[in-house]
């Protein structure tokens, strides 16, 4: 039985989190490189197989939820997930659900997802959070409450710096799809996207965005709305607009981001999923 000590300690030279766990009374400190290392293992059985507007989840919003396994309504998207693709550098990857292996932190992609999330929080440039997640269950309540995915390497390759190699099974990015608002507005979904810094500029983000559109429509959402796309994140702005998202809101002085002297502007982006062709392929 793994018991989580609710703290993230120290950082390695990749600014990664180190997580301390106690397993049978023996503490193990694992660097992010270990957290982001995965191998082919079996999927766990879906816990949630209920309707999109299940009343037990009716008050879920973009920023809160019930800890899950990220496989909510997975039967609706079985034709598309797992989805295989080729990145800009020729590397083959798959978009798939998070793999969870109890009692094995090195193989458990929940830890990889939490480490990526906390890394982005520390960067302080693209997400609104300023406090890291301290336990896997806390992170699951946010990221895995509904439907969530990883981009997993199928074969070996190099990172975007061309200096460090990456291995098959490594997590290159992750994203979720869930209601942006509760109740009567829960047909509007939100997405959260993270590309591991060492795999940026390889097409991971664009792949996640395209798969997001396909699965969001098939999960029954009518539209998607992204609340906070920061003006200073030029790559994100360009990508969402190139994928057909419409800028429908401008919120000035919205975010106190690291590295900026003034408050940043946030854009709201909307996509009408009813207009996405039924034969759309990521």
Q: Overall pLDDT, averaged?
A: 82
Counting DSSP H or I runs of 4 or more residues, the number of helices is 5
Structural class: alpha+beta
Biggest sheet features: 8 strands, mixed
Strand content: 25-35%
C-alpha termini separation: 40 Å
What's the order of the H and E elements?
EEEHEEHHEEEEEHEHEE
Number of strands: 13
How helix-rich are the residues, as a percent range? 10-25%
Low-confidence stretches: 1-56
Report strand order across the widest sheet.
4-5-6-9-10-11-13-12
Radius of gyration: 18 Å
General shape? globular
Structure, explained:
With 282 residues, the protein is of the alpha+beta class. The chain is 18% helix and 30% strand. The protein is globular, with a radius of gyration of 18 Å. The N and C termini lie far apart (40 Å).
Quick structural summary:
The chain is α+β, with helices and mostly antiparallel strands and 282 residues long. Helix content is 18%, strand content 30%.
Please specify the SSE layout and strand pairing.
Blueprint: E1 2-11, E2 17-23, E3 26-30, H1 32-35, E4 83-86, E5 92-96, H2 109-123, H3 136-143, E6 147-153, E7 157-158, E8 165-166, E9 171-179, E10 188-195, H4 204-218, E11 223-230, H5 234-242, E12 246-255, E13 264-272
Parallel strand pairs: 10-11
Antiparallel strand pairs: 1-2, 2-3, 4-5, 5-6, 6-9, 7-8, 9-10, 11-13, 12-13
């Amino acid at each position: 039985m793994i018991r989580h000590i609710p703290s993230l300690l120290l950082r390695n030279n990749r600014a990664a989190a180190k997580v301390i766990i106690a397993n049978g009374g023996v503490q193990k400190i694992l660097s992010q490189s270990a957290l982001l290392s995965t191998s082919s293992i079996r999927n766990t059985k879906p816990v949630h197989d209920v309707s999109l507007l299940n009343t037990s989840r009716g008050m879920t919003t973009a920023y809160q939820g019930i800890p899950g396994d990220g496989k909510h309504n997975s039967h609706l998207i079985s034709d598309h997930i797992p989805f295989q693709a080729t990145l800009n550098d020729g590397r083959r990857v798959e978009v798939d659900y998070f793999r969870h292996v109890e009692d094995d932190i090195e193989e458990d992609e929940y830890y990889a997802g939490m480490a990526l999330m906390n890394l982005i929080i520390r960067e302080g440039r693209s997400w609104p959070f300023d406090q890291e997640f301290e336990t896997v269950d806390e992170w699951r309540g946010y990221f895995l409450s509904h439907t969530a995915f990883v981009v997993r390497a199928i074969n070996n390759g190099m990172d975007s710096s061309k200096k460090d190699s990456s291995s098959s099974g490594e997590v290159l990015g992750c994203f979720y799809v869930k209601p942006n608002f509760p109740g009567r507005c829960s047909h509007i979904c939100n997405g959260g996207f993270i590309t591991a810094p060492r795999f940026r500029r390889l097409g991971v983000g664009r792949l996640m965005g395209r798969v997001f559109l396909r699965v969001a429509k098939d999960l029954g959402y009518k539209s998607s709305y992204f609340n906070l796309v920061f003006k200073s994140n030029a790559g994100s702005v360009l990508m969402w607009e190139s994928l057909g998202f419409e800028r429908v809101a401008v919120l000035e002085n919205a975010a106190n981001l690291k590295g900026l002297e003034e408050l940043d502007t946030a854009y709201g982006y909307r996509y009408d999923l009813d207009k996405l062709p039924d034969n759309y392929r990521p």
